Amino acid sequence: MGPFETAPRIQPCMILAASMNLDAPGIEESAIAGLKRGDSDALATVMGQYQHRLYRFLLRLSQDPAAADDLFQQTWLRVLEKIGRYDASRNFTPWLFSVARNLTIDYLRQRRPSSLDDPQESGVAPVERLVAAGLDPLEQLLEYERGVALATAIAGLPVIHREVLTLRFEEDMKLEQIAEVAGVPLSTVKSRLLRAMQSLRGRLL
After folding, report:
1. What is the pLDDT of residues 91-104, one digit of tens each?
2. Predicted TM-score of the model (pTM)
């Protein structure tokens, strides 16, 4: 039995606010070293630190809560397989999201190949409620409707556009980090972000 086989299965939250940005503190070198040693406590620490952000990213791309949950678990199994080759001088977050992204793209190619590029692909957007503290009921309703409209508009975009919007505005990644996650040149990230913003603006007008 491997050192991680008895680690608990962590269930991420199934409903996340669309404007939420849970910035996890930097992963300590000791946690990464623990992962490389097969320390289950280190695994639980790192998973707990990233579970909301990672699940949100997977849900944005897959648009399927059950698939996102499965991909979340697969991501950590793949991390355990690859952690021995991880260069600790690199930022851990883009590396982790790259692992998750590659698994998700493989999943989408197998099940919905046209969804990678087709903005007309139908899908059910996760309905996420945005309730600002201190607002009266009418303001809450208006804020909720704006949140639903935004989530629906994003859900109608191609996965490569959902990806770049999520990483840029929810994960607050730099364009260079997004390029690392997506495995594409920086110029491609810039053009995808521009097209995504244009498409999103057109859907919200």
Report:
1. 899 999 999 999 99
2. 0.69
